[in-house]
Write a structure and sequence with these properties.
2 domains, Spore Coat Polysaccharide Biosynthesis Protein SpsA, Chain A, alpha/beta, 10 helices, elongated, 8-stranded mixed beta sheet, single chain
């Protein structure tokens, strides 16, 4: 078994691959350890695969796992972790927003503390005031509804022991949310403050972040379902109080002209609550439907390594 596996995914990563390779090799060589670099091509539409294969051709330490299509960032990461071989596994993104030089800091902290995971958290969230404000709201809402809160401003980069990775990849969720799985796997995990870079067109926009939040909440918490129950109870209680008030008022002052505005507002409010509640229930039912089919969460078209492992294997 080699000492270190460096795992990353490729999606529109062609401009960064060569520099990423050079910087990762320098960082790994400073540890004086044997290492491999595992590139997982997540159906990238550019020439990321070709660039990675050129690196593989000249450096046998480079392994390339080519997925049959785009399965998503988190699923590609899980495939790379599952196929890594090192006693330690360093995971990071290939777009160079996360500095490969962090490896030395993470490794020193891991050896000193004896922890199983050292992961990065941003000192301050990158971006403008709107991105920072919405990011803070995102984590507050996220952790308020989760049973296992996740660290705020956590990044992908982390150094993990083999025993932690082996337990992490045992999760067979078809709807993968890594932030939750990292926490749920347990073991001793220590944060390290980092300064993350930024690029002009980030991979995750507001729509993608909202999608990740909805996926995480419905994958790791039943609190939205419980919240529906309490909201329904509150609406019923409010309706009873309003009915009693209207009866008392009618007995004292007689019936007035029916209030069309209040009627319409009530109908729209209750209709919206009904549709919202059914939507949440529908998301949970969809997840149950997906999980019970037990499909592989990725399909590997080919793997390029020293052993030239074959084609069409799935995980």
């Amino acid at each position: 078994m080699i000492d270190l596996s460096i795992v990353t995914t490729l999606y529109r990563s062609a401009p960064f691959i060569d520099e990423f390779y050079d910087r990762v090799c320098r960082a790994a060589s400073s540890l004086e350890a044997s290492f491999e670099i595992v590139f997982v091509n997540d159906g990238s539409p550019d020439d990321s695969l070709e660039r990675a294969l050129r690196l593989h051709a000249r450096d046998p330490r480079v392994r390339v796992i080519d997925l049959s299509r785009n399965f998503g960032h988190h699923k590609a990461i899980m495939t790379g972790l599952e196929r890594s071989c090192g006693r330690l596994v360093f995971l990071l993104d290939s777009d160079l927003e996360e500095d490969p030089a962090w490896l030395a800091r993470f490794h020193a902290e891991l050896r000193q503390s004896g922890a199983d995971v050292v992961y990065g958290v941003q000192r301050t969230r990158k971006g403008g005031w709107f991105e920072r404000a919405t990011g803070a709201m995102y984590y507050r809402l996220f952790n308020a509804l989760l049973e296992h809160p996740i660290p705020q401003n956590v990044v992908t980069a982390r150094l993990m022991t083999r025993r932690y990775v082996d337990q992490l990849v045992r999760h067979r969720d078809r709807e993968v949310c890594l932030a939750g799985l990292w926490v749920m796997t347990g073991f001793e995990q220590l944060p390290v403050t980092v300064e993350k870079g930024s690029r002009e067109h980030p991979a995750y926009g507001h729509r993608e972040r909202l999608s990740v939040m909805v996926n995480a909440l419905t994958s790791f918490s039943n609190r939205p379902l419980v919240l529906i129950f309490y909201v329904g109870c509150a609406i019923m209680l409010t309706s009873v109080v309003a009915a009693v008030y209207l009866v008392v008022r009618a007995l004292r002052h007689g019936f007035g002209v029916p209030g069309w505005p209040s009627l319409i507002v009530s109908v729209w409010f209750l209709g919206g609550m009904t549709i919202f509640s059914l939507g949440i229930i529908g998301i949970y039912l969809a997840k149950i439907f997906t999980e019970t089919k037990d499909r592989p969460y990725t399909v590997v078209r080919a793997e390029y390594s020293r052993e030239s492992i074959g084609v069409g294997q799935s995980r």
